[in-house]
Amino acid sequence: MAKEKEKISCKDVENFLQPYLEDRLNNKDCFKLLNHLKDCEECMDELEIRYLLHEGLKRLEDGHDFNLKSELEERLYHSEQHILMIDRIKTTLILFGAALVILGLVQLVFVIIG
Q: Is the pTM for the entire model greater than 0.85?
């Protein structure tokens, strides 16, 4: 069950970036953000800048080596996979529920005609 792309504005994205970087963005808003970033280079650039600041400053203080652009790409990929997994689980539960209803109806028919 594929979700339709929910369009959000660049202004909305501005409100999602910091919560995303702090792992506080809910799945619905994360889905919207990821879809917007695929089509909007300016917002992707803004996320990269914020990610560099958010993660880079922490790492510089600790003296760690890092490739933040690669890490951000990986984080975005994992966020998308997480959203897809949740969508698949929801679809599976809906199909399982429908199968149970059908099974119950079939049993009811056998009881009535049996």
A: no
Q: Which amino acid is at 15?
A: N
User: Quick one: 7 exposed, middle or buried, by C-beta within 10 A (0-12, 13-18, 19+)?
Assistant: exposed
Cβ contact 5:40 at 8 Å: no
CA atoms of 82 and 94, how far apart (whole Å): 19
- List, for residues 63-78, the tens digit of each pLDDT value: 766 678 888 999 999 9
In the numeric block, the tokens 């005609």 are attached to 113
Number of H helices, E strands in the chain: 4, 0
32 vs 55: CA distance, rounded Å? 23
Reduced to 3 states (helix: H, G, I; strand: E, B; else coil), residue 3 is coil
